[in-house]
Structure formats: C-alpha cells, structure tokens
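so i finally got all the pieces together for this one. its two components total, 528 residues if u count the protein bits. some of the lines might not be protein, just check the labels. i wanna see the whole assembly predicted at once instead of chain by chain like last time, that was a mess tbh
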Amino acid sequence: MPRKQLVAEVINVGNELLDGRTINTNLNWLCGKLSELGYVVRRATIVRDDLNDIAKAVREALRRKPMWLFISGGLGPTHDDKTLQAVARALGKRLKLDKEAFESIRRRYLELAEAGVIKDPSLTKERLKMAKLPEGSKPLRNRVGTAPGVLLEKSGVKIVCLPGVPKELMDIFENELRPLLRETAGDRGFLIQQLFVEGVVESRLAPLLVETMKRFKGVYLKSNPKGAETVSQVIVDFIAEKKDEKKLLEAMEYFSKRIQEIKA
Amino acid sequence: MPRKQLVAEVINVGNELLDGRTINTNLNWLCGKLSELGYVVRRATIVRDDLNDIAKAVREALRRKPMWLFISGGLGPTHDDKTLQAVARALGKRLKLDKEAFESIRRRYLELAEAGVIKDPSLTKERLKMAKLPEGSKPLRNRVGTAPGVLLEKSGVKIVCLPGVPKELMDIFENELRPLLRETAGDRGFLIQQLFVEGVVESRLAPLLVETMKRFKGVYLKSNPKGAETVSQVIVDFIAEKKDEKKLLEAMEYFSKRIQEIKA
C-alpha cells in the first residue's frame, strides 16, 4: 500500500488463554474494530499471568514502535491480576494511587453496597489495587465494571490497558478510545469483500490470485479453503483501503470472469 | 510447582487472525491438548503472512528455548503461504524437495483427478511448493488434506509446522504428534476443576484465593468473574498436576467451607 501503515499491536494476558479454557474472542473483536478504523495489527502476543512474562512482552512490543499498543486482561482485584505492575516495570515507572480512579472505584463499591450486592464497601487492599496506575496514566472510564482502563504514552507509543472481561473491554474501547483512534486514523479504513468459488481447487487459483493483485495494485487477495483441497470450495477475500473501493470491485469482477474461463 | 515445567510455545500465522475475520480456535484447541498432556504454553504469538514477521517470531521463540514450538498456518499452495520459507530463513537452512512429501502430494492430486475434483493432476509450481521443506525436516502425514506437516529440531527445540485448516491441524496432532508428546511428558498432565461461587464479589474472594494456594502448595487458583463485579458470580478454577489430584480436591473443599463462612 502506498501510504504508511498505521500499526497496532495487541498483548492479551491470562493463563486461561494458554491452557484451553478460554477462546481469545477479545483479540478477534479488537482486530476487527481496529481494521475497520484503518489500523493494521501487525502482531499479537498472548502471555500468562506472570509479572516477568508480561513485562518482557511489553518491552519487546515497545521496541517495535507501533502507533498503538493494546493490552487486555489482568486489571482486576485478585493475585493474578498483574498487568499494571508489569507495565510500570517495563516502563521504569512507579504505581501511584490515581485520584480519579480511586473516586470511581469508591463510588462503585458504595453503589454495590446500596444495591445489596456486597455487605462492606470499604476499600480493602485488593480493591485499592485497581486504582494504582503507572505514573503518568490517564484512567479510562469503565461504565459496566469496576477496574478502569488505562491510557499512557511512552516514546511515541500510545499504550492502552483494558480489562479482560469482554463487555468491559468493549465498553471502554467504544466510549473512550474510538474518538482518539478515529483522530489518529483520519480517513483510513479497510474494506473486505468475499467471493465464494466452487469447483476450482486452491492450488489452481493460486496463480490467478497473484495475477489479479498485480493488475489491481492496492487490492490484496487471500484464499480460504473450506475443508481441504478434496472439496473444492474456496472463499476468496478481497481487501483494500476504503479509498480504493472502486478498484476492489473491478478486481472482483475481473477475478470472477477468469474463474469462469478456467471452469469452461 | 516443584518439577521443571515442560514449556511449549505457539506461533499462529495468518492475516485473517489479525483483522477480525477469523477467531483463533486453533490456539485454544492446541493449548487444551498440550495442557492435558502436561505442557505449559508460556507464550503464543500471532503474526501476519509476512516473511520477515514470521521469521522474526520464530527466531525470538527459539531464543526462549521452549521444549516444543508449534507453528500453524501458511503451508498451502498460495502466494501468502510463507511459513516454511520463513522457518528455513530463521534456521539458516535451505528449502529442499522432500521425497516423501513429494510422493504424498503427487498421489493426492492423482486421487483428486480420479475423483473428478480436478481436471489436471500435474504438479504445478504452486503444488510442488508444499513438498519443499527446510533441510533436515521430517514430513508429518496429513490424512485429511494435501500439505504435510513438518517436524524438525534446532538447538534442542522441537519445531512443528501444521496447516491452518483446523481439521488438518487436529489430524496431524492426534495421529503424528501425540505419541511423541506423550513420550517427552511422561506422567505429566494437568487437572482443572471449576467451582461456581455466587453471592461473593471477586475482590472479596481475592485474599481467600491466596490463602488457599499457600495452604495447598501445587494447587493454583484463578477466578473468572462472570459479567463484572455488579453481578457477584465467579467461577474459580482449581488447577494442579495430575499427581496432586487429592490435594486439589482438598483445596476445593477447604475453599468451599471458607466461602460459606464469608456468606454467613
């Protein structure tokens, strides 16, 4: 593509993502939203609830200098919620009680007590932990849960920490981050169109994919075989920036015609 | 845990995993199987269909010296299938036509032609590509698709390349790899038991999780809030090696009693 890519990276934290308990739907959702907004997620890293492992992954990601780094999971009140501590360590910053985060958490537990969900709203050390953010952070409001998200910047990389609970992650992304992401993306955004091809195996499509990409620069083709080569059904994705929509449609038309010729 | 961990890593290759098109079920499935067998997946890395990105991820994983490195995706016949080339580059090896892989691919296309799925079974360069493996590789038989898996070793790390099509990945894992994995794992294997807790918020459970882990060494507890702290439903996972099954059950009993005390 001619324009410089808007590169994003994702780090997902959680043992449950690496031992078969949980399917990483957060990554998929984040990637879809970022792609629509024009960002290219270049790499995702999944690590366990281990302070060193998280800090290492963060340091490595920062060295690759993405525009945005999204980290999900590990913001809660329990012993295995270590993300903010790890981020602070990776950045050489200290954790500091954040006034705004403190207030929102305090209010939250008062509400929960009033609603009868908990007996005692006092801010135990486990609850206070969620208000201790790396120095220089801005808390991101969580409308559907307790732990706030976190936004901070290091050497030009915007770092975001989000809760691992999907609806909290989605809430903060949509309400707190989307406007910022739109601002740094401008008119970018990708389109994906799919074409269903039957009766031609993938290996036979391969040269035609390359030919079409050469002819329509800026349009990227990717084939997805459905159930191995024995059943010759393939879904072909046509991907282009929004500004190249016309070219994308032309590429699809050209490709379809050539498929008919092969089949004839 | 007292014994040395059997560490595995996973690299998943594919643009579709990083732009929202595909949920990474392969990672979840692999992690579940590896965990049952006693392996700890320490990190997973997802990269795009980019030669440099894949090679870099492979080199980085090798430096961490896992016992096993599983790479999925990018073994097929199209332009964006670059995994074997990237692995060869990362290892400083050349790609070489493998006799056994060649034979299985040749046979495959003859069968497809006989079955009327394709017209021409000749081995085009796209089809031949799947038989070109990094020097020193052993092809792994793929019973349900065309591209064989690949097994090779570098500085004590067992490297496995698997197709990204889930049923092909599963087939090769179950039939070709399971016996090898069982051999290197011995009597290892993890147990996971879940406990459903209602009426106690996660921040209140937090100190009890730590207390129980201290009391029952070798048993790991992890809480999973269901729908934020407002609804106080939490699933607590109890994880231990198979040999510690008794201890795991005792920990669950202890934990349940303490929960009752908190609620009372």
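Chain B has a mean pLDDT of 92.
The longest helix of chain B spans residues 166-185.
anyway lmk what u think
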